[in-house]
What we know:
The protein has helices at residues 4-28, 52-55, 74-87, 251-260, 341-350, 366-384, 387-401, 403-418, 420-430, 434-448, 462-475, 518-533, 540-547, 549-557, 562-585, 599-611, 613-620, 622-625, 629-637, and strands at residues 91-95, 99-104, 109-119, 128-132, 141-149, 162-163, 167-168, 174-179, 185-192, 197-205, 212-223, 237-242, 245-250, 268-273, 276-280, 284-289, 295-302, 310-317, 320-322, 327-338. Helix 12 (518-533) runs antiparallel to helix 14 and helix 12 (518-533) runs parallel beside helix 15 (562-585). The protein folds into 2 domains: 4-16 and 370-585, no CATH class; 31-359, Beta-galactosidase, Chain A, domain 5 (Distorted Sandwich). By secondary structure, the chain is α+β, with helices and mostly antiparallel strands. The strands form 3 sheets. The protein has a 9-stranded antiparallel β-sheet.
Amino acid sequence: MMDQKNLLLAIVLSVGIMLGFQWYVSEFGPPPEPRQEQAQNTVDPAAPPVTAEDAAPGTVPTGPDAVSVPGGTPGQAVKEAAQRAISSVPRITIQSDRVTGTISLRGALFDDLTLLDYRETTNPTSANIKLLLPFGTRDAYYADFGWVANGVDVPNERTLWTADRQKLTPGNPVTLRWTNDAGIEFSLRLTLDENYMFSVTQRVINSSDQHVTVFPFGRIRRTGTPDITDFYILHEGILGVFNGVLEEHDYDDLQDAAQEQRTDRQIIKTSTTGGWVGITDKYWLTALIPDQDTSATARMFENPNQQGDNYQVDFLDAASKLAPGASAETTSRLFAGAKEARLMLKYRDDLGIERFDLAIDWGWFELLTKPIFFTLVFFTDHIVDNMGVAILLLTVLIKLAFFPLANKSYKAMSKMKALQPEMMKLRERFGDDKMRMNQEVMALYKREKANPASGCLPILPQIPVFFALYKVLFVTIEMRHAPFFLWIDDLSDMDRLTFVNAFGLIDWTPPEWAIIGIWPILMGLTMYAQQKLNPPPTDPTQQKIFMFLPFIFTIMLARFPSGLVIYWAWNNLLSVLQQYVIMRRMGVPIGGGQVKPAPAAASAGAAAANEGSDEAADEGGEEAAKPSRKSKKKKKNG
């Protein structure tokens, strides 16, 4: 029989299958095997070929390790150490409407970057997000670009560069230069767009009298394992796209690889044409993007030392062979900022960065998460200017899309509820004979053309929609700190206005597990209302269990993003209204009173009474089972 039991069982099983499959693939799925590409000589084709000796040093250095910071609270210590590191070396300033920071001229390090559009909390006076931290701090996080070469003095982390201007802004590039004792000049031309993309043109001018082979590289280093959102539907760690294939590695993956041979790092190394490699947090990303038309070698590894974990991603471009007087240059990019969906797509399309939008973890339901996200963005940009209201509009759209299916289901459930009196009579008569009772119930369904399974139809397609919306709320930065109304100031966070502290009247912040907000309570009430409209289970024990389901779901969803709880509560309310109208039209009573049989139910009762004559014959004889002539005459005359 289609009742709340079947409905919830379908939800639980579907959820378990989808989440279990996603967890299994993320934990045990084999990584893709990218095809190998041969590095090509990109400069001076007439020069002698690159030999094995020339290519021997073609490995990006690991660089020095950041030092630990003793004393003070972690936040205070890091802040003070960062300030000392910034002020201890000459720097140029980074300034735009969206970012601010500095670049160290000692080593040409991108090691100080703040995002101006994002803050740590919803409090408008809280600190802006600090993405990159300088070398010399416990949580150093920086990027740099350079060269490796054989027998050539190349710039390194200790090199002091000279700059042609003191400020890097959109439209005003800065060029850094350094010349070694042999007269070979190295330069970095840095540009910044209006958002988060830096372009770095690495140029070498060989003014010596010798042939020179250099390998340009880019590198990102991160000291210490960050506090991550420990949830398996979201990837945080190392990732990249190599030969068109997305590859992801958790911090644990690199730690396990390093533990196997502490003295000889286990390096994940891939040759690729196009693509990118980076380190991602939930909302932030640093990524290296080499020239998309040439071959490069990307690496990902963890370098453990006495002071903690050090993670590095890098790429090494193909060798450039320079004759005396020749020059070579290559342009690559550094992304350091927020993973804004439309911006990532714009970079993918305008700059030709292969699958750059996959830096956002859209998940296995990408075909649903992206349309849902961009629908919400469209509503917010053009209609309501409130992401919470956009979720309400999206819910209406989804209800309209499933309206024919839901209508059929609610009619079937209304018919099932209208048949409840007859089913209760069958249960009373055949309660001790389960097989006979099931046969009589199925015969009743057949006579009345009632389909108990049809109630599942609108539920199944909505389950992936539900989880796709959950994914959107959980991973997209556009949902972060997006307000609704009143106390809901972050749709990606749980509803924290709870009765546990008298809705804020008591000056006490309860632990997260004890918080049950107002919206989860409203969701539970709408779920209870919908449950009362559905046909109850015939088993009294199941009826008691189902009475607690709204309460259980209220507790379960209390820690979900408030935007998702608002969606579910609003969806329940629309379902209640839709089902209420259908039940009124079909003559099915609302509430817990006596059921007035609909015409179909009345005919079912007559049929059940006639079929029950066999039992009457057993108890009172054959004559007792036959209707009298008088009753036949009445039936004939109507």
